[in-house]
Amino acid sequence: MWIAGPVLNFLYPPRCAACGARFGLDAHRRVCERCLARLEPLPEPLCETCGGPVESVRAPQARCAHCLKLPPAFARARSLARYRPSDEDKRDTLPSLIRRHKYGLDQALGRAIAEFIGPELPFSSDDCDLVIPVPLHRRRLWWRGFNQAALLAAEVARRLGRPLDLRSLVRTRATVSQTTRNRDERRRNVRGAFVVRRPHRVANRRIVLVDDVMTTGATADECARALLAASASRVEVFTLARVL
Q1: Where in the chain are the domains?
Q2: Which three-class secondary structure state does DSSP give residue 185?
Q3: DSSP secondary structure letters along 11-80
Q4: 178-233, pLDDT tens digit by residue?
Q5: Distance between CA atoms of 163 and 156, rounded to whole angstroms?
Q6: Which of 59, 131, 132, 186 is 20 to 30 Å from the Cα of 151, by its Cα?
C-alpha cells in the first residue's frame, strides 16, 4: 500500500543526514540549511587547470607548480569544497558524509551528498556531451555494492541534461588503496588501470568525469588519458571535494 509523504514522515520523522536535526513533516530534503552552509570552499586563487590553490597571484590565470611541472591530461578540474581527512569526529560536515557513504556502505546517503552541489555546477551543458564516473574495479564494486561516483554522476548528468555513460570507461586492474601514498606513488599505482571498452561512445565527445574526492588528481589524470586515447575531444573533471 502506498503511503503519502507527510504520513510516512509522521511515522518515521525525517532528520538531517548530517547532524540529525529534525525536519518538518513536509520535508523533502536530506540535509538542513545549517549543514549546507558549513561547506568549506577552496582557498583562492585556484589553479586554472587542476582547481587547487596556487602559490601566487602574479598571473590572472595562474597554474600551480604541479601542473606547470607535469600538466595533467584533463583540461580542467573543479571541486566544490575542501576535504579534511582529519575531521573524523564532525558528523555534520560533507567529508564526514562522504566517508559514511563510501566506507560505511550507506548507499542512501548518495541523495544527501548530492544536495551539497547547490543550484549551480562549475560546468554548463555547453561544456559537455557525456558524463562518466570514475569506475570501480568489479571486485570493489561487488564488496561495496555501489559506485559512489556513479551515483553522483547521475545527478550531474541530470542537471546538465546530458547522457550518463556507466559502461565505456572501465577499471581493469584492482589497484591498492591510494590513501597513504604520495603523489608519485599514486601515479604509479593507477598507471594503465583504466581502458575504454566502447571507444565509439566517447570519440569526439566532450566529457565531464565525475568522482567524489580529488587528492592529487592521479586517478582523474589516468582516466582522462584513457578517454583521450579513445579519441575523446576534451575531458574535464568534477569532484565534490578536494584534499588540501
Answers
A1: 15-243
A2: helix
A3: HS--B-TTT-PBPPTT---SS-HHHHHT--PPPSSB-TTT-SB-S--SSTT---HHHHHS--SSSEEEEE
A4: 666 777 778 888 899 999 999 999 999 999 999 999 999 999 999 999 999 999 99
A5: 10
A6: 186
Residue 115 near residue 35 (C-beta atoms within 8 A): no
Q: Shortest CA distance to 167 belongs to which of 127, 131, 205?
A: 131
* pLDDT above 70 for 79: yes
- Residues ≥6 apart with Cβ < 8 Å to 137: 171, 172, 173, 174, 175
Instruction: Supply 118's cell numbers.
Output: 547547490
Residues 221, 192 contacting (CB under 8 angstroms): no
Nearest in space to 94 (alpha carbons), one of 216, 199, 232, 240: 240
Taking residues 126-153, report their average pLDDT: 91
Beta strands in 153-203 (DSSP E): 169-171, 194-196
The class of domain 15-243 in CATH terms is alpha beta
Average pLDDT over residues 44-73: 83
* Of 114 and 175, the one with more pLDDT: 114
Contact indicator for 95, 84 with CB cutoff of 8 Å: yes
Band of residue 80 on the pLDDT scale cut at 50, 70, 90: very high
Instruction: Round to whole Å and give the CA distance between 98 and 106.
Output: 10
Query: Residue for cell digits 604520495?
Result: 182
Report d(CA 57, CA 70) in Å as an integer.
20
| CA 182, chain centre distance (Å) | 20
